[in-house]
Write a structure and sequence with these properties.
The protein is built from 15 helices and 10 strands. The chain is α+β, with helices and mostly antiparallel strands. It is elongated and about 90 Å long. The strands form 3 sheets. It has a 4-stranded antiparallel sheet with strand order 1-2-4-3. A 4-stranded antiparallel sheet has the order 5-6-10-7.
């Protein structure tokens, strides 16, 4: 073995450097560079041998793979270097210099030939890889309303929504597919006639877990005017209601979220009322659709769009749900605004 040729002094310094490096979270390549800078000459493979064999606990904590987020960054860098004409050996050396990580030539080859990639099985591993888009803003709007973002007991992070309007759930599914860079998830129809769709995504869960964190969703919602409009359309598809006299309401138990919805509406020039309590906590009500009685656990608030701005709401936002859109259209036609 190579380490037998090391003198006791060098071996002691090597082990001490590895202990210090592990404590600081360094990989063996960086430890090897530290030793080299301090005047201790030894091969990189020897440092790697002691790093994993002499301290097997470090290998256990590290696991078989690098974190997916890091592998994706390495993957993108490898493809970039390959496009610039570098060979596998030069790419390997460059990756070590930039990221202090050693990739095998076979891994680099497989990535460059598109045999596999770190994206396999998970296109969006974290919030950092979510791209601002109208589709993401729509998903945020839906889940902020009646949709859900939950962590199951088996460690699965689920995002979903259900409704009796198939057109609404189809649009939600389309947007989920676009955001997660995959085919739209399939809709399922429940025994009660409602349609539902769900996906697994830890990245979306981190953005959408409830109570909704306004600071977390704001960069995606306020990215551009189209994102603002898509967010509001998703929220009103989920939580909105159009009365027979053309009043556009939305409801939620999170008063801060409603204040944020008002802010985005105001940015688009649409005026609304202030949040007011619609149903008080502890109220009992009967749902005629399923014949069940419920007791509200929280105060529910509502806001409504000023009737003078109903046409502006129709033109800028509208509803994906056609029954809501038709009711709004009928009201505007009755007032000869359409």
């Amino acid at each position: 073995m190579i380490q037998r040729r090391l003198s006791p002094e060098v071996k002691e310094k090597l082990e001490e450097a590895i202990r210090e490096g592990i404590a600081k979270g360094y990989g063996y390549v960086k430890i090897w560079k530290m030793l080299k800078e301090s005047g201790i000459e030894t091969s990189k493979s020897t440092v790697g041998h002691y790093y994993y064999k002499k301290f097997p606990g470090r290998l256990k904590r590290r696991g078989s793979y690098l974190p997916r987020e890091l592998r994706i960054k390495l993957y993108q860098e490898v493809l970039k270097l390959r496009r610039h004409g570098l060979g596998y050996k030069r790419i390997k050396k460059r990756i070590e210099e930039l990221y202090d990580v050693s990739l095998s030539k076979s891994t680099i080859s497989d990535w460059c030939r598109n045999i596999h990639s770190p994206y396999d099985g998970c296109r969006i591993p974290s919030i950092d890889f979510l791209e601002q888009s109208p589709e993401l803003a729509y998903v945020i709007g839906v889940v902020s309303g009646d949709g859900w973002a939950v962590e199951r007991k088996n460690g699965i992070y689920e995002i979903g929504a259900k409704a009796r309007d198939e057109d609404f759930i189809k649009e939600f599914s389309r947007c989920l597919g676009k955001v997660l860079r995959r085919d739209p998830p399939k809709l399922r129809q429940r025994k009660d006639g409602k349609f539902t769709v769900s996906v697994e995504s830890k990245a979306l869960y981190e953005v959408l877990r409830k109570p909704i964190d306004i600071d977390r969703i704001a960069p995606f919602v306020e990215h551009c005017e189209e994102c603002k409009r898509s967010f509001l359309r998703g929220f009103y598809d989920s939580e909105g209601y159009v009365s027979k006299d053309g009043q556009i309401y939305c409801y939620n138990t999170d008063v801060q979220l409603l204040q944020y919805v008002r802010k985005i509406l105001n940015l688009l020039g649409i005026r609304t009322s202030k949040p007011k309590i619609h149903v008080k906590k502890g109220t009992t009500f009967f749902d005629r659709r399923n014949g069940k009685t419920y007791v509200t656990k929280k105060d529910a608030y509502r806001i409504y769009v000023r009737k003078l701005d109903a046409l502006k709401f129709y033109k800028l936002i509208g509803f994906t749900i056609q029954r809501k859109q038709r009711r709004l259209e009928n009201y505007l036609k009755k007032r000869r605004l359409l």
